[in-house]
Each structure stands twice: as C-alpha cells, then as structure tokens.
Amino acid sequence: MNDHDVFLPASEMSKDETRIAAEYMLLPLIKRAFVHDRKALAASGAKFKHLYLEVLDDMTEQVRADLIKNKQELFDRHMQMIRHDWFCYEVYARGRLFELVYQKSVAMDWIYERVRGYLRP
Predict the structure, then answer these.
(1) Which among 10, 31, 15, 53 is positioned nearest to 111, based on CA atoms?
(2) 90 has which bridge partners?
(3) Which DSSP string do the residues of 52-115 spell out, in sequence order?
(4) pLDDT, tens digit, for every residue of 44-96?
(5) pTM of the predicted model, to two decimals?
(6) Name one Pfam family in it (predicted).
C-alpha cells in the first residue's frame, strides 16, 4: 500500500461486492479443510470410509465450482483482491480501495453455514 492509498470502509461496498469478496476470502479455507479431512479420513479405519469419502469429494467439487463462479464474478466486476492476512484483504472495486477485515468468529460462522449448505442439498 502506498502512502497515497486511503482505505474506504467496507460498509461502502455494495452487498454484491461484499458477498463476492467474502466468498473469495473464505471459500479456499473450506476447500483446504475438506482436503485435510479427506486425508485424515482416508487414513482412518472407519467402517463406511468409502461412503464418507464420496460425500466429501462431492462437497469438494461443489466448493471448486463455487470458486470458479466467484473468480468469474470478480473478473466481470473488475475487482481485485490483495491478501494481507487470513482475514484481511484490500479490495479494489469501482476504482476505489476498501479494506475488508473479518473477525475470526464471524468468518467461522459464515464457513459453518456454508458447509451446512453443502451437506444439505
């Protein structure tokens, strides 16, 4: 960030821009958790391991599809995101610079609800 850059509050972003930015920020965390869980489950001795792995693979594919859709929306709206931390990004949208910071508890609530949606088709 240059000394000339001034962040506008994230509240100035439109609802769609906020949604797109949140998905860009948090969907990769869901994918990473699913990949980690798949490795742990594959190494376990669960009785119905192949069924659990199938469900996990299906959810991972849904996340991948959502990531592709999200990146396309980001491109279509000419938005750019620069990561500073797990939950802190600079968002360039409409020629303006925003700082989007999620508290970990808020991010975990969002992730929890999204994973619940993947589990319930």
Answers:
(1) 31
(2) 82, 99
(3) HHHHHHHHHHHHHHHHHHHHHHHHHTT-EEEEEETTEEEEEETTEEEEEE--HHHHHHHHHHHH
(4) 998 999 999 999 999 999 999 999 999 999 999 999 999 999 899 999 999 99
(5) 0.88
(6) YhjD
